[in-house]
């Protein structure tokens, strides 16, 4: 086929179809001529899910497909040319189509982008978009939580602009989706949603994306250290009273729990829906504080018993008897402190295991 001839026919096609075409006028005059708009979203990647800002950042390709009866031609008259590529400035396009829950300024598709016109009158507008949309994030089961975030696509002038969103032929693709290191796409859905409004018909095309958090990083960097700290907290009761390290160790662990709780709370939204993980971390902080109190009781009992030993020794006359009594009192002191440590350690083991199991059950 002669390429020059084909280019000549293409030039003639542009003249015949586009030169007499009025870009500013929509291809309908009344409601019976309303166009059916198909929307195709090809999700490329999830950039970020911000729990604190309640936002969902993605990158995707979007295609809008509609029929304009003024752009039809017989391909056989132009050497079989069935489509032409141009830009959106040369054809009428539904510029009132917007993402209603978009948080940035670029809500509507008004930019000049590549556009394909087909011989049967269909027009396809193609654009790439990095979008930040609102998404209500429920973090009660963090870090084993699942979320559902959406794109709400609709017509800004639905009360007098005759554009009908076609949910049956619109599609949401994940064929070219690049896996996110923190989130996994588990399911997608597409449906037409009618919003209650003063206007008689106000429809939104909802593109729902169901995602699930990959908990591995959170488990290794946050949950595992907290569990290890709770175990170390229990081992404070194993340290002997004479070592002088019992109170210092328990205080250090208490402060570490406080730092962890502050870091976690800084990344979470301030809402009444508190994650079970945060409740677990706060409970560990409380248990660590109780451990400090228990250690203080053990030390107080030990010091009080030793003081009574000294007073008893001073009142006795026999040196041998004094020595035996001192040894007996010393053994009694160690036994009392050791018994308290065992009782307190048993209580803390039971409480820590119960809190950990409860948290795992609630989040799974």
Explained architecture:
The structure is a single chain. With 364 residues, this protein is α+β, with helices and mostly antiparallel strands. Helix content is 39%, strand content 28%. The chain contains 5 helices and 11 strands. It has helices at 3-18, 216-235, 246-267, 276-315, 319-363, and strands at residues 35-50, 55-72, 83-87, 97-99, 114-118, 120-134, 146-155, 163-165, 171-173, 183-194, 203-213. The strands form 2 sheets. Strands 1, 2, 3, 5, 6, 8 and 9 form a 7-stranded mixed β-sheet that branches. A 4-stranded antiparallel β-sheet has the order 4-7-11-10, with no helix packed on it. Strand 1 and strand 2 (55-72) form a beta hairpin. Helix 2 runs antiparallel to helix 5 (319-363). The protein starts with a helix and ends with a helix.
Q: How is the secondary structure organized here?
A:
Elements lengths: L2 H16 L16 E16 L4 E18 L10 E5 L9 E3 L14 E5 L1 E15 L11 E10 L7 E3 L5 E3 L9 E12 L8 E11 L2 H20 L10 H22 L8 H40 L3 H45 L1
Parallel strand pairs: 1-8, 1-9
Antiparallel strand pairs: 1-2, 2-6, 3-5, 4-7, 5-6, 7-11, 10-11
Helix pairs in contact: 2-3, 2-4, 2-5, 3-4, 4-5
In short:
The protein has 364 residues and is α+β, with helices and mostly antiparallel strands.
Jot down its keywords.
364 residues; alpha+beta; seven-stranded mixed beta sheet; four-stranded antiparallel beta sheet; 5 helices; rod-shaped
Mean pLDDT comes to: 83
Q: Percent of residues in helical segments?
A: 25-40%
- Characterize the main sheet: 7 strands, mixed
What ranges have pLDDT less than 50 throughout 5 or more consecutive residues?
Answer: 306-320
The coarse overall form would be rod-shaped
| Class from secondary-structure proportions | alpha+beta
Rg (C-alpha, Å): 36 Å
Order of helices and strands: HEEEEEEEEEEEHHHH
How many angstroms does the end-to-end distance come to?
65 Å
Report the total helices. Answer: 5
- What is the β-strand count? 11
The percent range for strand residues is 25-35%
